[in-house]
Batch of 3 targets.
Target 1
Amino acid sequence: MFHRRQSYNDAVSLAIYFRPFIQIQKRNLVNVKFKWVKDTLLDSVVSSSVHLKATCTLVSLIGSNPESALPVYYLTRYRGQLGLPPDLKVSTFVRRYPNIFREFYRPDSSGTPVPWYKLTPEVLEVYHQEMRCVYDDCNVDILNRLQKLLMLTKERLLPLHTIDQLRWDLGLPYGYENELVTKHPGLFSFTKLPDDRVGLKLLVWDDCLAVSHLESKKSNLAETNHGELAFPIGFTRGFGLKRKCMEWLNEWQKLAYTSPYVDTSHLDPRTDVSEKRIVGVFHELLHLTILRKVERKNVSNLRGPLAMPQKFTKVFERHPGIFYISKRGGTQTIVLREAYDRGNLNEKHPLADIRGKYVGMMKKGLLDRSRGLYKKESKGSEELRRWQQRRAEFNYYGVKQGWMDLT
């Protein structure tokens, strides 16, 4: 009996020696729960940019128009991309920032005055800085971000609708399909999907890009005795980790790190190793964003393309030391903890600085508006009154008297 058991143990030891992955795969998913603890600094990061996406999108829409002006009904068509509350009208939002958007009126086909909006000279200058950054200074970097996003998927393919949801986070310009993708026919192609939607497919795999941020920074990270990569961890003050949770987390960090750019069909989704791979994918995805944060709803439909198991977004709750879930702005925003130090980005992309200028202008516009600074300067209501008066004269005399374009 002793010799038989010894032989069995030797066989198992040899199997583990030559295929250590077998041993790792046997680690079942541990049911560990962490409480959510408020982080005021990261909440302030999210709060400061609650309406930033809407402002930047509207500025891009108006700035990219040949006339640099658009009517309100045209802007309303893009409401879904703005992320505004359902009860907030686009026109109401735009009028909050008279130092960014200037309102004037033009008649429609029936002669009814319709509100139009153009950019103020100050914001137009910032918009031109943004375009120079996107198409000149950081063009290669932004193109690489789109490539890496597609490389994360199992088929190197994503619906345009899904990319649109992440467009602003990745720093892609408005109209990237025509302005960016079509200029690189050797890299991308548009594909018709089975559900008749249009998808974007990456044609060329780049091994130089298939390196995660964690792997590229591994020399600066804590490593286990066996060389497995560990994620940077940080908790909100007063988090109070239980001993059981701490022990599990330490063991989990020692598990093998799976690059988000390799095939993982061999992984059992019910193991901690698979969970570490999921965390690695979103760790990389957040590093592809400009501000290292993304709305949870914008990644919830990536389960199929990223080959994720059911309820994959639960990793955000299970790893509060890596991800912080902010509930500001009526939605859930996932923030990468390691990217911020006391509310400030550790590594700032040039686009982040430009967006900071938009934030400053938005704050100034709201403050000056509350002080009544724009009441005397605002021409919107006066122009509308003049339009109504002229239209009344037109109806009374039956003669068109000097219809003008008030800009």
Target 2
Amino acid sequence: LSILLSLLVPAHPARSPDCGGILTPSGLSYFAEVSKPHAETILTQELTAQTDSDLFLSSPKPSRKQINSVKVSKLTLSLIPHSGLRLNIDVDLGVTTAPSTTKAMRLAILADLHVEMSPEGNLELVTSACKPALEEVQSTKEIESKSSSSEVDKEINVDKICLEVSKLLLSPNERLVSLTTQFPVTPSCQVQYLPLAAPMFSEQGITISLQTTFQVVGMGIPLPVSPTPFSMPEPASSSPSHIILAFSEHFYSSLFFALEMAGDFNMTILTSLTTATMAQNITQMGSLFQEDSPVLLQAVFRSSPRVVLEEGKAALKLFLTIQVGAGLPAFQSFLSVNVEVKCSEHQDPSPAGPCPSPPTVESRRELTVLSLWQAALLEELFVPTVREEVPAQLNVVLSEGIFLPHIFGFTYTDVSVVIHKDYVLVPCNLELQ
């Protein structure tokens, strides 16, 4: 099967998004807030290891002035539509100018950032402009003359400062790489979210489009082709949520297709019937099975599941072939029934949510060697079990959900789900772990 699947995978598959997300201005503010300690740690490590002469373009005379304290008092990130981000950092420095004198100085850094796609397909934050400025805030020695304060009015070593800004981006870029990690859905099935291009920047936030791929036993599988291209919907208004994830109807179809290919939906159901109890109504059973054995149902998908999203509701249609038989470990089938099961959910499924509503069996067709069986008897004997056990076992597979697209170190909180026609929105907040 794996060899056949590999032959079916096109050499250059069409790249089109099936999900994505919008980082809102609220989310950007949260990122800036939680980035302050990291920025302060990096700048402290780098700046306190330097002397005054390293940081400023002063006279060539040796300087023994030393930066001994660094505190980030302000860090903000703002959107530049159609371009990128603006990083604004205010750093309070304590500079020792003499054994008993420390000058308080303010280093202001203004940097423009944009996002690029690396050759490996990862997103990278890059500095496109950097402008530092320095001013003296106060002197700890009141007897110091105004002329002495002019000594700090020097040209900043821009290259040195902007190098430190680049170092601030190392950790965020390491986290961004984790976006394309393979996440487990089940032990035999993994999902991967791949960015298709650099994000788009607008007043509404940062929009990224993703393409989902699935691996079964480590091999990529060819997913059904989406009938319509998916694009990230624009938020109707400013959202208080940090991020809004969006999943297309095609995303769900691909997910269930992958789980079907992995065999995760194949199930064996033990019924309350035995061959002896069935022989009371079906006399032929006595000749087929001399010993009393429990009656089993083995269900496999005969075609791919279908997901349909409408305003406020979602439906999952399953097309199963159920073999009815007995005997373990040697299963002997004596009946094959095709069953269509529909699970419906109103407004609040998780992105890979369970099948919570009792399904309806919409059609049945028996292919049997026992031609005397009637459809009504089949329904009485097996449909209640199918109605109860099929969604229960689906829920076992889906109970853990799947990993949503995310970067390492952050988790989602305050999650809500809004179902629309053809797609699902998941507004949520971010929390640094």
Target 3
Amino acid sequence: MPNLEHPAYPAADLLHLESLVPCRESQVSMLLSVFGERQQFSFPSIFIYGHTSSGKTYVMQTLLTTLRLPHVFVNCVEYFTSRLLLEEILIQLQSCSSGTEQSSSVHCDTFNDFVRMFKQTVASRELQNQTLYIVLDRAEQLREMEANILPAFLRLQELTDSNVTVVLLSEIVWELFRPNVGCFEPFTMYFPDYSIGHLQKILSQNHPPEYSADFYAAYINILLGVFYMVCRDLKELRHLAALNFSKYCEPVVRGEANERDTRKLWKNIEPHLKKAMQTVYLREISSSQWERLQHDGGEPGQLKGLSAHTHVELPYYSKFLLIAAYLASYNPVRTDKRFFLKHHGKIRKTNFMKKHEKTSNHLLGPKPFPLDRLLAILYSIVDNRVAPTANIFSQITSLVTLQLLSVVGQNDQLDGPRYKCTVSLDFIRAIAR
């Protein structure tokens, strides 16, 4: 029995829509109820929010396209000023019903011009008989535009006296949108994250035709067992599934196992999934590089020019500054004399007795340090004499800008600024080499 039912739309279209949006039937059903029939006035504005990769954009595009509803779809990141945004809506609107591209350019400087041109376009394109949907993806960018843009879009139905609904898609909640002066409240709707069962069902639909559905579902189950705790992004999981499936199939291709030997297949794929864990979200290498790496059996760090985290191009003294900052963050002040002075005198034996009783400084995290201590360590580890010139201080500022160092506390303290090193030990080892 189909989950999607609505008297205003053909049953075949709804059945096809249901197959395209798995695990989002309840949200689509709610949207259909809010939309109503084609000629009916819907809510003036709808606000849909949820985490990234929860299906907001895909569901809206699929719903409007499958049911052939007149709509305009604009990404607010691409059209980042109010003028670009309003002009793009008008351009798409002019080709909405005719299906032809608009040859003449549109000039729209203010929202008053937009309302006037919008009413003219709707009348000329005969769009008054059904609801027109304007979908603004990444709508949080509207907060960076003029103060009147967001309230005007929320009341566009009233301003234009037209059957239009504005749909806002965002990753943040409505409370962070609401202006201080107040505005028309939209109908809000939440898209929850996909559960592990939903991800299993969605990813299993992409199984290759040369393998059975059960075999690919078992592979997806193994993949989610490894990555679900660290990655819930459907796009990232789909990329990982496509990237590592050939390695999972190797024992079957070589004839060493059949599709039901789950244990052998797991033993073969486990080390490669552990390597993939190091580059989740980072996209440090391309798919072809990753396949070559799996074939050669190497480590991810062996590719030349692989990672921005291990091959950072910094000026000569910036590298020493970063090493000095790391030493200052993770070594106590009382050890500076022992580490950085040639004639530091005798060391008490009690210090060595306590060394094994203390927690590792790497587990406790970096500690803040003053500027003069950083420069003192720098002079100690650099072979030649370094003068405290403006060049050195500007490089410290550059390291803060690159977020390799962070400023702790206020900058107007009498004892000078304090810093903290934010990079890892592997990063410093790569710089030190």
